């Protein structure tokens, strides 16, 4: 009898360990640390961790309804975004992951990433020192950096691409104080600007804890404690690198007036 009980307990212990291992999948890891770690050695002037500071215009114009930094829509209703992938900087596997992430936009939105011909404005996916992008269409050759070490994950590729389409981080949107609390005491004062609220066009969509644009709980933490706390439930998961959320997709379609 005792031996049977021990056997059952061993089976249950093994099952618990297996289930625990399943929840510790790489895609469930907070991607913020990947981006911030990759950007430590970047030569770019970055804000909010991975946004290239524009040198020629106010980045806020993009989310305030201006069309100057939106990609153009063709007569067929598709938003065409020319791109190139720097072949000598990525492995074949890396290139396939980038292409797969871009095709996911085709499946759910009117945005179409097309290989560049002679278009003047285009995205250049490169393995530079870090994961970063500019905000919206900045004109000419526009770098989306995806370092081969730490950045080649579906959600991170989508994250930086969404920046290039004109989207900011979720935790800095104008109404964020209704949904999250920023724990300033856990943030170095030199990093505080990464949490400043922005004047954003939220496109009449709800705050999205599941957004691939949401930074994780301990982003920029100086002591390992949470820098972002969710309201009212402190246990709501935030920060993921799996894929765009349904609301992320909805926003792309709203910003670009997609007729699907």
Concise synopsis of the structure shown:
With about 260 residues, the chain is of the alpha/beta class.
Total number of distinct structural domains: 2
Helix-and-strand structural type: alpha/beta
Assign the CATH architecture of the largest domain: 3-Layer(aba) Sandwich
Spatial order of the strands forming the largest sheet: 4-3-5-7-6
Into which percent range does the helicity of residues fall? 25-40%
What's the overall geometry?
A: globular
Mean pLDDT figure: 80
> What's the story with the biggest beta sheet?
5 strands, mixed
Low-confidence stretches: 1-29, 55-61
Strand and helix map with partners:
Elements: H1 2-23, H2 32-38, E1 46-47, E2 51-52, E3 79-85, H3 92-108, E4 111-115, E5 122-126, E6 131-132, E7 141-146, H4 154-165, E8 180-182, E9 228-230, H5 246-255
Helix pairs in contact: 3-4
Can you walk me through this structure?
The protein is an alpha/beta fold and 260 residues long. The protein folds into two domains: 32-169 and 247-255, Collagenase (Catalytic Domain), CATH 3.40.390.10; 171-230, no CATH class. The chain has helices at 2-23, 32-38, 92-108, 154-165, 246-255; strands spanning 46-47, 51-52, 79-85, 111-115, 122-126, 131-132, 141-146, 180-182, 228-230. A five-stranded mixed beta sheet has the order 4-3-5-7-6. Helix 3 packs across helix 4. The protein is globular and about 50 Å long. Residues 1-29 and 55-61 have low confidence and may be disordered.
List its salient traits.
260 residues; alpha/beta; Collagenase (Catalytic Domain); five-stranded mixed sheet; two-stranded antiparallel ribbon; globular; disordered N terminus
């Amino acid at each position: 009898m005792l031996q049977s009980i021990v056997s059952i307990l061993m089976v249950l212990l093994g099952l618990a360990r297996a289930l625990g291992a399943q929840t510790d999948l790489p895609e469930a890891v907070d991607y913020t640390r990947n981006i911030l770690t990759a950007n430590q050695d970047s030569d770019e002037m970055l804000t909010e961790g991975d946004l290239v500071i524009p040198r020629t215009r106010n980045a806020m114009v993009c989310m305030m309804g201006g069309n100057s930094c939106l990609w153009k829509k063709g007569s067929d209703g598709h938003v065409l975004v020319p791109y190139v992938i720097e072949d000598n900087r990525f492995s074949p596997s890396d290139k396939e992951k980038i292409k797969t992430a871009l095709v996911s936009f085709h499946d759910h939105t009117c945005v179409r990433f097309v290989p560049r011909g002679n278009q003047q404005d285009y995205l250049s996916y490169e393995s530079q020192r870090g994961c970063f992008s500019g905000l919206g269409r900045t004109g000419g050759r526009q770098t989306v950096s995806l370092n081969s070490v730490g950045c080649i994950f579906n959600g991170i590729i989508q994250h930086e691409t969404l920046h290039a389409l004109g989207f900011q981080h979720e935790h800095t949107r104008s109404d964020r104080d209704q949904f999250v609390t920023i724990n300033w005491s856990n943030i170095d004062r030199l990093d505080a600007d990464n949490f400043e609220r922005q004047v954003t066009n939220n496109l009449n969509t709800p705050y999205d804890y599941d957004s691939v644009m949401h930074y994780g709980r301990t982003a920029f933490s100086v002591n390992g404690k949470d820098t972002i706390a969710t309201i009212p439930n402190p246990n709501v998961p935030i920060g993921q690198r799996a894929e765009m959320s349904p609301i992320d997709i909805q926003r792309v379609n709203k910003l670009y007036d997609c007729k699907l």
